[in-house]
Amino acid sequence: MHRGVAVVTGASSGIGAATARHLAKEGFDVVVGARRFDRVRELADTIGGTALSLDVDDDESVDAFCDAIDSCRVLVNNAGGAFGLDPVEKADLQDWQRMFDTNVLGTVRMRKALLPKLEATGDGHVVLMGSVAGLEGYIGGSGYNAAKFAVHALHQVLRMELLGRPIRVTEIDPGACETEFSLVRFEGDAERAAKVYDGLTPLTADDVAECVTFAVTRPSHVNIDQIVLMPRDQANARMFHRRPS
Description:
Layout: E1 5-9, H1 14-25, E2 29-34, H2 37-47, E3 50-53, H3 59-67, E4 74-77, H4 93-120, E5 124-129, H5 142-161, E6 167-174, H6 181-185, H7 190-195, H8 205-216, E7 226-229
Parallel strand pairs: 1-2, 1-4, 2-3, 4-5, 5-6, 6-7
Helix pairs in contact: 1-8, 3-4, 4-5
């Protein structure tokens, strides 16, 4: 079955790469984009997709990426990330700027650029990658919380603004998921990143990708508004069950 073109941002690793693989298996022609072009090119080669360089923080990069795509039925706004764990009183504004640029403004840039192509298919679908951090705050998460709360608000507004037009909108909110996320947050400190998951079994990128794939393969009259998924060992953004090592 040919399902049309699916665009996945931030596809160089983790949830983005896993989502691209799952969508390709479901019959989508997948276009993957990221700043680390060597990685998305390798991914595209393995799934029979198309790789394009993309920096969602940069207007010109987004325009060039979207101009190179003739059609788009599904847009998965996966590019994002967290930087630092400083409290508000010690906030690094450069880290906050990076989080808002990538998680929020990057999503807006992509949505604006591809909206006409999504609508032209008669069955467009926008997937926003949120987080449980966008539903509940936690100490040390102020900047990331703020960015993901903004993504949550964007999802709600998009759903209202696009009502009556042939475009569905879905928000995916993962909890603890073992990818390169913590490694980036801790600036490459692998030991510190690994401790995030000590004593628990986190989600995998494939777990999240399966939720994305489920949402975008429902019949066109069905809109999966929001999926919140966490590992069994997690009750909310702050509460975990950890087993002794």
